[in-house]
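ok so for the tutorial part 2 we go from a plain amino acid sequence to predicted structure tokens. step 1 is just haveing the sequence, like this:
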Amino acid sequence: MDLDLDAALRRVADDEHPGLRSIEAAVLNRVQANRTSARTGTGAVAFAAAGAIMLGTMTAGSAASSASAAPIDPFGVASPLAPSTLLLADR
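step 2 — the prediction. this is what the tokens look like for a chain of 91 residues:
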């Protein structure tokens, strides 16, 4: 395969596509449209966050009771009918 890279790049540079003249304006218009819609989305997110905080505060309120911890058993609930307990009952 004999390909002269410089010649191929010159051919690409010489061909001017008619759509390339207006591409910069189209890209900038699209960026401007996305900025406008992003501002609208940010306001909606801020409103939803404030609503969620208010709802959480009202739901929790002052009626929250203190939690009490359950006793810790390394192997689950202590049972009087466990095999080890039954074996030790004779002693």
